[in-house]
Amino acid sequence: MSLILRSIKVKICFLAFLYCVTIALVSWNKLSSTGPHGGTLKKAGNYFIEMKTVEKFFYAYLLDKKLKSIDNKNVSGEVKFFMSDSTNFNVSLKRNTDDAFTCENLARSNSCKITFLVFGNSVSAKFENSALLVEKN
Questions:
Q1: pTM attached to this predicted model
Q2: Rounded CA gap, 101 and 90, in Å?
């Protein structure tokens, strides 16, 4: 009888260990959706793009794999705003600081797609307008 109990205990311990390892790996690999500047973060190829709106201004940041800002001297960008009536607007992003790009925010857009041209490569990410999604519900 004790051999059966020991076998059950070993199986339970093994399953508990396996469960803990699985949870740890999932947590470790999960990317935070908030970037270092407090905006929304999306993966874009070998980079990350962070988008943030403050009042009437729209900010975009190009980040490396370690979420460090990339100097914007040799980078250009644009944002395409998608409106609810199926129209869209392309706006060039202007360099604001050493690492930020900015333009006027079109607050009534449903979503936007930020595209950066960096070292001859185009990287982009699409962002939903969470403020409008909340408003619709």
A1: 0.71
A2: 15
The string of pLDDT tens digits covering residues 91-124 is 999 998 878 999 998 878 889 999 999 988 999 9
Q: Is the dihedral of CA 34, 40, 42, 44 positive or negative?
A: negative
Bridge-based pairing of strands 40-44 and 47-54 is antiparallel
45: left (phi over 0), alpha (psi -120 to 50) or beta: left
Distance of alpha carbon 69 from alpha carbon 99, whole angstroms:
6
- The residue that leads in pLDDT, 115 or 128, is 115
> Which residue do the tokens 């469960």 mark?
19
Q: How many CB atoms lie within 10 A of CB 37?
A: 17
